[in-house]
Amino acid sequence: MNEIFQAANRPAEELFYRRNDRNDVRLGEIVTTAETDYEKANVVIIGCPQDEGVVRNGGREGARHAPDAIRREFYKLTPFGIKSKIFDFGNTKIGNSLEETHETHCRIVTQILRDGKRIISLGGGNDLSYPDGCAMSEVFGNSNWLAINIDAHFDVRADQPRNSGTPYRQLLEEKFLKPEYFYEIGFQPQLASPVYYRYLQNLGVNLISLDQLRSRETADLEIRELIRQKFINHSSSLSTFFGFDIDAVRSSEAPGSSSPNPFGLRAGEFLTLVQFAAKLINTKLIEFTEVNPEFDIDNRTSKLIAVAMHKFCVA
Are 302 and 256 in contact (CB under 8 A)? Predict the structure, then answer.
C-alpha cells in the first residue's frame, strides 16, 4: 500500500475549506487524507490532473486544473445526509507521457478497488476512462463489469496515439470490455460520426441518444429498463462503472468544458443520472471528466460536479 500512496501527490491543505463553526461543519473539516484513515473509508477520491489527451484530440487546454478546482467546491459543502466515510487519496503523479500516467493511475485504482472501496475518479481528460476501465477489468474480469458512458460523443476514435477520443475503442479492442456490456448514453447525432455509430452498432453496443433518453418521463428510466431487461439474472454479480463527460451537459449550465456544447443535458437531468448510478449497489467507480476551470464562469461547472459527488456520497 505504501507504494501506491507514493504514486500519488497528497491534496493541498488549502483545498479543505474550514468554516470553524460547530453548528455548520463542512466536508473540508471532515474528509481525511491521513494514510491511517484509508482502511475505514467507504468512498475514495482520486484525481488525475492532466489534459495531454485533450490536446492530442484538438481540444482546449485546462482540464488538468479540474481535480483541485472541483475539490475546492466540494469541500465547501456540508455533510448533510452523508454517512459514508470519505478519503481523499490525492492526485496521480503525472508521468513523462500520457501512457505512463495512465499506467500509474490504473495501478492506483486497481488497488483501491481490490480494497473494496467505491471510487470517485476526477479528470483531466476523458482518456481517463481507459485506465479506469482497465482497472475494472483487472479486478472484476472483462465478463463481470458494465461500462456506462454519459457523453455527447462516442469516444471510439481510431486514432494513434491514444487521446481523449479513444478510450472506449481501446477497451473494446483490447478485450477489457465486452461490447454487450457497454452503454453509450446521451450521444448527440450532430456530434457523432456515422462511421463510429455503425462500428458500435455492429459490435452490439447499447446505444441511447440524448433524444431517446428524453423520450421517457425521467432521465434515468431508459437506462434502468435496459439494464433490468438485459442483466436481470446478473444484477448481483456485475460491477458497474459510470463515466460522466461534462460535455454531455449544455454549456449554459456547465460552461467550463474542454469541448463546450450549447445543447445537452440540463443540470438536473445530469444529477438524476448520478443519483441513479449511486443507487446501484454494484457501482464501483464513478468518473467525472473534461471540466476546464480556465473557461468556467463563477466556478459553475466545478460546483455542479461537487454537487454530483455529494449526491453520490449521500446515496
Answer: yes
Q: Is the pTM value of this prediction over 0.90?
A: yes
Q: What is the pLDDT along the chain (315 residues), one digit of tens a residue?
A: 678 999 999 999 999 999 999 999 999 999 999 999 999 999 999 999 999 999 999 999 999 999 999 999 999 999 999 999 999 999 999 999 999 999 999 999 999 999 999 999 999 999 999 999 999 999 999 999 999 999 999 999 999 999 999 999 999 999 999 999 999 999 999 999 999 999 999 999 999 899 888 776 666 666 666 665 665 445 457 899 999 999 999 999 999 999 998 999 999 999 999 998 998 889 999 999 999 999 999 999 999 999 999 999 998
Domains parsed from the chain with CATH numbers: 2-314 (3.40.800.10)
- DSSP element (H, E) containing 101: helix 98-114
- Phi, psi dihedral angles at 99 (to 5 degrees): -60, -40
* Burial readout 274-298 (b: 16 or more C-beta within 10 A, e: otherwise): bbbbbebeebbbbbbbbbbbebbee
Helix (H, G, I), strand (E, B) or coil at 156: coil
What is d(CA 315, CA 313) in angstroms, rounded to the nearest whole number?
A: 6
